Amino acid sequence: MRFRVDITAIVLICLQLSISAQNSTSAKRLITEKDLFDFVWVTDPQISPDGSRVVFTRVVVDDKRTGYETSVWTTSTTGGDSPIRLTNGKHDSSPRWSPDGRTVAFVRAGEKDDEGKPRPPQIALLSLSGGEARTITNLPKGAANPKWSPDGKRLIFLSSTTSQDIEKQERKKSSAKPSSNKGEPAADEHESDVHLITRAIYRDNDEGYLDPKHHDHLWLLDVPDPSADLAKPMQLTTGDFDEGEPVWSPDGSRIYFLTQRIDEPYYESPTTDIYSISPTGGNPQKLTTVPMGIYDLALTADGHRFAFHGSVTKPVRSYSQPDLWSWTYRPLRRLAI
Question: Within 10 A of 239 (CB to CB), how many other CB atoms are there?
């Protein structure tokens, strides 16, 4: 009798060990560093003007596992359909709807020139009625952050291209023509890779070595018809300071942007200036100075209130949580006499 009980106990123990082994095999494992290669990120969602769809940037690790690939996708805001890929480039990002919802402007990078060198990112347009995307800028230092005008006829964007860069590009095109300057040696266009450090902060985690000769400025471009030649963009702002985050006024008469007109701002508490400029050009007008570093500038539909993210700077802290802020702007009006 005792022998039978012992046999039964052994069988039960073996059965329990077998079940435990199966459970441990099917249990979730811990995350490892190689799981990064399978991650998929979604960023920069943009709602269509009618609210029915959203475009976004999808980010994955490339096949060689040495970098990231980005592409523009779209899906319904109701979640009733599967996402659809819109662009075929390996480095497409920053999609922006046209006001009528028929076209998406985005930034395309990663393409190579005839010599196999990577070209700077440029702005492209994609018609949602069909066809391939069309690149509409060709600036030597690239273009970024496109924003449609309210009437959908123009795009404001950022570029660090200078007049010297454009002249150099034109000379290169001229020298490439078979009938131009035969027998004459080409001008030396070599750019030195030596960096002369004259500032306390000279590198950035995202940009590498900072270039004091090139600053992000506002450029304006008339959106070309699909069959028309590319229009020449117009530079709106100049100078030795960066501008960013352009925002159109609701009526399209002004363009607002952020800047910091301080030569070496890292020696002072963060501040940000809000400026405006006419799309036809002219001198920018300063609206106010915000006593903090701000970003994500937005404007209400009536054009009188700005919203932005920012962190308080006083008292000085090792870390401050960003908050949502607003500021009411009422332009001065001349009183009748």
Answer: 11
